[in-house]
């Protein structure tokens, strides 16, 4: 960290920067307090389309730009000659540490960071080469890393000289478009570890402001250059930006920062720069860091619905909203937005039903406020289908389930049981709607043609109802399914528009049919003569009810041989046929069923992986968290049996822990809110200790006999969770 004396000096720098910028801003456009205002930027339309505009109903991507944008390229000024190498710098550092004389190191840092030209002179791999393509930034990453790693171990006057030089660079008068050397300097300065310290935030904010206001073409270069940064440095920059946003929202020491009214542009600027790194992360497969590393959990504590409504009302206009940049909002926060949006829709529809009743002078009935589903256990699927089809207008009301002939009141248990029984029956292999692939342990849509696809619509509606009513389902769909479910995320007004069609790759097929995908991969890498050795055409064959049927992958495909030259096209068409075309009607019905319940602009905020977590829960188990949140009935948490139980469970392998969770709750996955949202309960079973444990999955309840010792409890528990299926032993 930097000492108090340094802070005072930075405060002086800050005032200087503020004064200069206030003079410049007086000339510029001040229509929007949240829009970064930079000299020579004519209007806000040059900002990158890296955020979601609710009015456009689509996701935008930096990668949609052409490989090389034909923007005017300003001439690069000649760079000073600097010959210091990594070894020279390291030698200077060692001598300074040994002698205490930091003059050589001080001179290097103060010279290198004095201007954008000097930064390039020091860190550009070859000062004579332009490096003006997206493939190579021309930055000597090793030298940059060594210099920054050493910086925080130097005396304060050295660190202050770096910041003073950065201020000089930021105050430079810009007379035209940025050069590639300028972009290189921005890329290098973003990696400065000094910006982790709050005393440097005024300088950091101005750096972010200038980067955020660059043209779309310049952002394109920064995105592609950023993806070449090492994982460690990339994560550090992202964490620094997230910390900057968090501390500006909730400062530990408010006196450290200017008043919020004077720096409303801080958070929008940082978020826009973070969007560039998110775009860079999305360009690589696998990504540099997980998409969850962009989550800012601080946003869980702000008024999310105000953010959501601002976004709905203003889109990408002058009013900033975090919903324009959904990658920064955690899945827990998105769930809150979706739930509250759902609740508001439920209340609105229930209120309208009440008004309609009163206007017709009919007596109001409490049942009109709910989606009441009455089914017979013996006709579960057909009754459910009929009920949901008849009550389309009520799908957004709170769900209540009644089993005909049973006196139970639905306090949540019957709803969960209805979901469990219905999912188990629909996904049974004998039912024929879905095919279970053992290699990938997931279900996929059957391609068999039929006259009525209403049952696929039912499954989609079930998934929608589960999200809407916060029920976790034990469904095993591959990630590709959720990608298709958001294609597009808003149901198109034109019913002729194709839905559920997305770009699919061999990687998507690997997640469903790994053996077939491996065979196609072998075809792509085959070194012999594909046409003579494989003797294949652009035609596929499928068995349907015992009959082999053929389908052309392209017009006259049966007459076009697969060769070394066209095999990539063949594989792509084959994958597209399997995952899109052959199941189009089935998936379209499924898509419309899901969106009939979940139609909301909130879906625009979600990634496919996040939809899966909302539907099925998270696979990450934390049994210690479950222990802390468990409730007891007939037991105390200090009882010997309970202590035995947790000793055994915490010592289980992950596989056994999943089996226990599945045994007790009907799913081996965790709700978005974590283990605490399970409301897990252990009840005392007044039966013989010879009996196995019993579970009531509808209530997430485990009934545990008072076993005499840990060995007996472990033996009985493993037998129970390893052999139970549904509501009885196999």
TrEMBL record:
Pfam name, any one: HECT
Active site per database record: 698
Record's keyword terms, sorted: Ligase, Phosphoprotein, Transferase, Ubl conjugation pathway
A molecular-function term among this protein's GO annotations: ubiquitin protein ligase activity
Gene3D superfamilies in the record: Hect, E3 ligase catalytic domain, Hect, E3 ligase catalytic domains
Protein's GO biological process: protein polyubiquitination
Catalytic activity from the UniProt record: S-ubiquitinyl-[E2 ubiquitin-conjugating enzyme]-L-cysteine + [acceptor protein]-L-lysine = [E2 ubiquitin-conjugating enzyme]-L-cysteine + N(6)-ubiquitinyl-[acceptor protein]-L-lysine
Classification via CDD domains: HECTc (cd00078)
Record EC number: 2.3.2.26
EC category name: transferase
Function of the molecule: E3 ubiquitin-protein ligase which accepts ubiquitin from an E2 ubiquitin-conjugating enzyme in the form of a thioester and then directly transfers the ubiquitin to targeted substrates.
Name this polypeptide is given: Probable E3 ubiquitin-protein ligase HECTD2
The species this protein was found in: Alaudala cheleensis
Source taxonomy: Eukaryota, Metazoa, Chordata, Craniata, Vertebrata
């Amino acid at each position: 960290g930097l000492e108090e004396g340094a802070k005072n000096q930075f405060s002086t720098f800050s005032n200087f920067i503020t004064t200069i910028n206030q003079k410049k801003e007086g000339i510029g456009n001040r229509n929007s307090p949240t829009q970064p205002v930079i000299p020579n930027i004519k209007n806000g339309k040059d900002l990158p389309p890296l955020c979601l505009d609710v009015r456009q109903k689509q996701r935008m991507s930096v990668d949609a730009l052409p490989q090389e944008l034909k923007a005017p390229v300003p001439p690069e000024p000649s760079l000073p000659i600097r010959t210091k190498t990594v070894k020279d710098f390291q030698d200077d550092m060692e001598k300074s540490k040994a002698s205490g004389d930091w003059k050589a190191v001080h001179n290097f840092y103060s010279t290198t960071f004095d201007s954008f030209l000097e930064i390039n002179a020091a860190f550009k791999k070859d000062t004579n080469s332009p490096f003006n393509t997206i493939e190579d930034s021309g930055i000597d990453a090793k030298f940059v890393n060594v210099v920054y790693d050493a910086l925080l171990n130097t005396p304060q006057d050295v660190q202050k000289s770096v910041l003073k030089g950065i201020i000089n660079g930021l105050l430079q008068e810009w007379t035209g478009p940025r050069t590639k050397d300028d972009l290189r300097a921005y890329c290098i300065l973003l990696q400065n570890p000094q910006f982790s310290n709050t005393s440097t935030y005024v300088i950091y904010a101005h750096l972010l402001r200038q980067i955020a206001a660059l043209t779309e073409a310049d952002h394109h270069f920064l995105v592609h250059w950023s993806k070449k940064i090492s994982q460690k440095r990339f994560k550090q920059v992202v964490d620094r930006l997230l910390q900057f946003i968090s501390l500006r929202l909730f400062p530990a020491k408010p006196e450290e920062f200017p008043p919020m009214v004077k720096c409303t542009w801080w958070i929008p600027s940082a978020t826009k720069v973070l969007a560039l790194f998110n775009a860079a992360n999305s360009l690589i497969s696998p990504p540099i860091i997980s998409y969850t590393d962009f989550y800012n959990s601080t946003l869980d504590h702000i008024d999310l619905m105000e953010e959501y409504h601002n976004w709905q009302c203003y889109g990408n206009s002058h009013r900033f909203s975090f919903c324009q940049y959904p990658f920064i909002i955690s899945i827990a926060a998105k769930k809150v937005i979706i739930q509250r949006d759902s609740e508001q829709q439920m209340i609105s529809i229930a209120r309208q039903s009440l008004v309609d009743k009163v206007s017709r002078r009919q007596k109001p009935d409490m049942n009109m406020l709910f989606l009441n589903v009455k089914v017979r256990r013996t006709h579960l699927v057909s009754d459910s289908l009929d009920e949901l089809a008849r009550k389309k207008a009520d799908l957004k009301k709170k769900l209540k389930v009644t089993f005909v002939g049973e006196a139970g009141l639905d306090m949540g248990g019957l709803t969960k049981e209805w979901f469990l029984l219905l999912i188990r029956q629909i996904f049974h292999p004998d039912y024929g709607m879905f095919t279970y692939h053992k290699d990938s342990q997931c279900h996929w849509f059957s391609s068999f043609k039929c006259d009525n696809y209403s049952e696929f619509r039912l499954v989609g509606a079930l998934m929608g109802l589960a999200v809407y009513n916060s029920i976790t389902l034990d469904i095993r769909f591959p990630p590709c399914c959720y990608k298709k479910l958001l294609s597009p995320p808003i149901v198109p007004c034109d019913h002729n528009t194709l839905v559920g069609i997305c770009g699919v790759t061999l990687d998507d097929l690997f997640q469903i049919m790994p053996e077939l995908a491996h065979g196609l991969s072998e075809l792509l890498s085959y070194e012999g003569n594909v046409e003579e050795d494989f003797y294949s055409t652009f035609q596929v064959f499928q068995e349907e009810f015992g009959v082999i049927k053929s389908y052309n992958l392209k017009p006259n495909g049966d007459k076009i041989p697969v060769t070394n030259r066209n095999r990539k096209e063949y594989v792509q068409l084959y994958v597209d046929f399997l995952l899109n075309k052959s199941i189009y009607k089935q998936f379209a019905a499924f898509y419309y069923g899901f969106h009939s319940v979940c139609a909301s602009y909130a879906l625009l905020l979600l990634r496919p992986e996040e939809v899966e977590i909302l539907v099925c829960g998270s696979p990450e188990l934390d049994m210690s968290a479950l222990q802390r949140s468990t409730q007891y009935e007939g037991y105390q948490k200090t009882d010997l049996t309970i202590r035995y139980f947790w000793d055994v469970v915490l010592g289980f392998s992950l596989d056994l822990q999943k089996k226990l969770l599945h045994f007790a709750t009907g799913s081996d996955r965790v709700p978005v809110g974590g283990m605490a949202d399970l409301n897990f309960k252990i009840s005392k079973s007044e039966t013989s200790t010879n009996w196995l444990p019993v579970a009531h999955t509808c209530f997430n309840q485990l009934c545990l006999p008072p076993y005499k010792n840990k060995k007996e409890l472990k033996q009985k528990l493993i037998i129970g969770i390893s052999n139970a299926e549904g509501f009885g032993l196999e």
